[in-house]
Specification:
heterodimer; A: Rossmann fold; 5-stranded parallel beta sheet; globular; B: alpha/beta; TIM Barrel
């Protein structure tokens, strides 16, 4: 990883979920760790998330859903990225996501799922280690 | 004993001798102790710490102003709190089954959780509803869903709380219409609509319209209910979600009451007499982990609100000054790790709410950091309340924790610090302005960040999560929402749309749209629209066209 280039991250809230405590805390922690962070705010469609990621030229997308809509919306975002020919953006997710759902989400292309109890440091380090600049 | 030694001297003597020598040999666990709200906690509290507290002025008697010791003169000796588990998922029929189960298990009130499309005013077949239908609550599109939801549940026998905000008027109208079909007139209906839009902007996120038309919908409901629904709580001014979003206990009280002030101000501005609506305002708080601060918080909130209503709004009726509240144990304190430990957390938090004099209570289930609760988990949560109610005898006297030097001092401090915040918000122009400029959201976010950082650094121990960790393969049997629910719901919606009389729906919606442009009360028009099976999405869409949509400020 080149030290001159800053990691750019889109923190996104797909779906109608209003629980943004976690997303905002993670956004701030990533910024404190030296990354450039764009936060989408609430109520993003998968199309809006992908558009924002491309417009902003991010290296990583962090998705947060606590409403249970992850099985519908996370894979849809991966499909749209694929349709745009994007395969170099690291996509991670978090929220209330049952263990049983994780294998399918990973199969769809989500690199990692961070559940309740994850420390901010773990997320920062994961992104630093896995992002492609 | 030397009678000449004064208490301050005696305290000082104790500190200089006993304490000093002990601390010299065994240092205390921390140099400073403070509550999560930042109130310093002393080693010991004595009568010196409550010298500012005047019993009759500040505490008084249960059922009497300023209600610090409770709103009912006989408290739980008369009637226990309402045990009310928030529930709802998938379709109306599935939720109806869960409701009946809870009533059979001894629950005494209903509390409806709606799914996100319902809360944000979209029908289940809307593009933005994809993946969300029936997930965090039950999907309601038309009156028919509401009829199924309360099938076999007589509305004159039960009180129902509905967590619905931006489209509160629509769901209230549907509830009235179900009552009509059951032969129960609206003046007999008991329950609560949350109807608290300001905390949606600040903390919970299910807003639709901008503040001005939202306030108009709220005051329309106040007026309608003051004339026609005397037993219904027209709003539940909620600190719970502010707390869940990360605030401290003091911020929870301050921001909630600042929102309350904004609602009362709006209602008075549209010409309502304060005593005509204020007794139907209700409140909702969280009960988090710090035992004494939470109990003191409930007591302080009652006292502050009473004084605000009397001194600021000149309420004459004592009932206008009476803060009645619902409590839910704090979801954010639950851990996904070792979930059975959550039963213990919830027990303590529920006990705090009872010692704080709550009117109704939801106890969270052990599995809620993982998913919606299973029937078995909800049963344990309800049993927790029943054990506190029937086995501990904490219910046999009123406000039993009063008079504790520590608790009275904390109650006093929480009142003082909350009022400082409220003054700051007043100076900005009130809660609506403080939300539009992002002040309240930023304060909440900063507290949430501090909390997370302290957990990450293990300054704050969360048992089973950052200490006392075990390797656990997740074996937990959690609830999976029926994956067919979305399609079933969309199908039912299509059927209702094809069976109803389109011309009736159209004219009801046109009338509503025209009224929204003027200033007549919208409740009767919304009621007309739901009776002819206009959908929630259609009604909200008409209002969106007239009112526009709220745009949240960027606070990061």
């Amino acid at each position: 990883m080149s030290s001159s280039k800053k990691i750019r991250v889109l923190v996104a809230k797909p779906g109608l979920d209003g629980h943004d405590r976690g997303a905002k805390i993670v956004a701030r922690a990533l910024r404190d760790a030296g990354m450039e962070v764009i936060y989408t705010g609430l109520r993003q469609t998968p199309e809006m998330v992908v558009r924002a990621a491309l417009d902003e030229g991010v290296h990583c997308i962090g998705l947060s859903i606590l409403s249970g809509a992850h099985n519908a919306l996370f894979p849809r975002i991966m499909e749209l990225l694929k349709a745009e020919g994007v395969d170099d953006i690291l996509v991670v997710g978090g929220g209330i996501i049952p263990e049983d759902d994780i294998p399918d989400l990973k199969k769809a292309g989500i690199s990692e799922i961070f559940g309740p109890g994850t420390t901010l440091q773990e997320i920062v380090e994961y992104i630093q280690a896995n992002v492609k600049l | 004993m030397d009678e000449k030694v004064t208490l301050p001297d005696a305290v000082k003597d104790w500190e200089d001798t006993e304490v000093k020598s002990t601390v010299a040999r065994f240092p205390e666990r921390q140099e400073h102790f403070k509550t999560v709200s930042g109130v310093p906690i002393n080693r010991l509290y004595t009568p010196l710490d409550v010298e500012d507290v005047d019993y009759q002025r500040d505490l008084g008697f249960p059922g009497m102003y300023p209600f610090t010791r409770g709103v009912q003169p006989t408290g739980y000796r008369g009637r226990l709190w309402t045990m009310r588990q928030y529930s709802g998922f998938a379709t109306a029929s599935e939720t109806n089954e869960r409701f009946r189960f809870l009533l059979e298990q001894g629950q005494t009130g209903l509390s409806v959780a709606f799914d996100l499309p319902t809360q944000i005013g979209y029908d289940s077949d809307h593009e933005l509803a994809r993946g969300e239908v029936g997930k965090v609550g039950v999907a309601i599109d038309t009156l028919q869903d509401m009829e199924l939801l309360f099938n076999g549940i007589p509305l004159d026998k039960v009180s129902t709380s509905m967590t619905i905000n931006a489209p509160a008027a629509v769901l209230l109208a549907m509830y009235i219409a179900v009552g009509e079909k059951q032969g129960v007139s609206m003046d007999k209906l008991r329950g609560t609509i949350q109807n608290d839009i300001l905390k949606e902007y600040a903390a919970r996120g299910t807003y639709i319209f901008p503040p001005t038309p939202s306030m108009r919908l709220i005051t329309d409901i106040f007026r309608f209910c003051s004339e026609k629904m005397p037993l219904f709580n027209t709003i539940s001014i909620s600190g719970y979600h502010i707390r869940e979003a990360g605030s401290t206990a003091i911020q929870e009280v301050a921001f909630t009451l600042a929102n309350g002030i904004a609602y009362v101000t709006s209602a008075i501005e549209v010409g309502l007499d304060v005593d005509s609506f204020a007794s139907r305002l209700s409140f909702f708080f969280g009960s988090a982990s710090e035992f004494f601060e939470e109990i003191a918080k409930f007591r302080a909130a009652r006292r502050i609100w009473a004084r605000i209503m009397r001194e600021r709004f000149k309420a004459n009726d004592d009932r206008s000054c009476m803060m009645r509240f619902h409590t839910q144990t704090a979801g954010y304190t639950l851990t996904a790790q070792q979930p059975d430990n959550n039963i213990v957390r919830v027990t303590l938090q529920a006990l705090q709410a009872v010692l704080g004099g709550t009117q109704s209570l939801h106890t969270n289930s052990r599995d809620e950091a993982l998913s919606l609760p299973t029937e078995q988990s909800v049963q344990i949560a309800l049993r927790t309340q029943q054990i506190i109610a029937h086995e501990t005898a904490v219910t046999d006297t009123l406000d039993p924790i009063a008079g504790s030097y520590f608790v009275e001092s904390l109650t006093h401090n929480i009142e003082k610090k909350s009022l400082e915040y409220i003054e700051k918000i007043d100076a900005m122009g009130g809660a609506t302005v403080a939300i539009e400029n992002g002040f309240i959201q930023r304060e909440i976010h900063n507290s949430a960040y501090d909390y997370q950082t302290s957990v990450d650094k293990k300054d704050r121990v969360v048992v089973g999560m950052n200490e006392y960790v075990v390797n656990e393969a997740q074996q937990f049997d959690y609830l999976r929402v029926n994956p067919q629910a979305e399609q079933e719901q969309i199908q039912r919606l299509k059927e209702v749309r094809s069976r109803r009389k389109d011309d009736e729906v159209k004219s009801a919606l046109v009338a509503l749209g025209n009224a929204a442009k003027g200033d007549t009360n919208l409740m009767p028009l919304i009621l007309d629209a739901v009776r002819v099976y206009a959908t929630l999405g259609e009604i909200c869409s008409v209002l969106r066209d007239v009112f526009g949509e709220y745009k949240a400020p960027d606070i990061l």
